[in-house]
Amino acid sequence: MTTEMLIKIFLSLVLGGALGMERQYHDKPAGFATNCLICLGAMLFTILSQVMGLAGGDPGRIAAQIVTGVGFIGAGSILRDGNKISGLTTAAGVWLVAAIGMAIGYGEYIWAACCTTAILLVQLFLRRALIWVEQMRHYDTLYLTCDPHWAVVEKITTQIEKQKIRILKSEVTKQENLFHVNIVASFTAHEFQTVTKELLEMPEVHSLFQ
Q1: Would strands 84-86 and 205-209 be described as parallel, antiparallel, or unpaired?
Q2: Domain that holds residue 95
Q3: Are strands 79-81 and 138-146 parallel, antiparallel or unpaired?
Q4: How does pLDDT run across 143-156, given as a tens digit for each residue?
Q5: Rounded to two decimals, what is the model's pTM?
């Protein structure tokens, strides 16, 4: 086994393992071992595609199948629970780990290392920035349909104001024996999720969308 091959195996385990540790830390489906194996496998398949090219075959045939083949592995980590979908980030991470393994296989070590660093920065630091953004207040409109009673409208506005949300504007129209209520308010992402959940639990509210 040549020194270059040992370097490729080592880098596949280190870079794939670094991304796997981040997933393992956040208790995600594809953890340390999975990412190591994907990176190592993509690297090996890439080398085999190069060997195939030297033997007169198509050098891109195996490498091209890695992109689609790894997609099936990533799809297995995507879960749906009602309207909530989880595992998309893990699936994208699996796909990128394979790309890093391919870069190592082709000898593009700097590209592989830089991409690994970039992914870790996104996963570890930019997510915290997004949490900060979600805590900022913004204006949004709630569109509700409810029973045609003014007491119900008052109950809805009271429920919203309980969350210390400032209502800027509200409009009520009556269509097909239902009240259609449009409420413009200023709230954070967390407050929006909380208030929409509480409003949908009210039997008088028939529908709600943003």
Answers
A1: unpaired
A2: 3-133
A3: unpaired
A4: 889 999 898 888 88
A5: 0.55
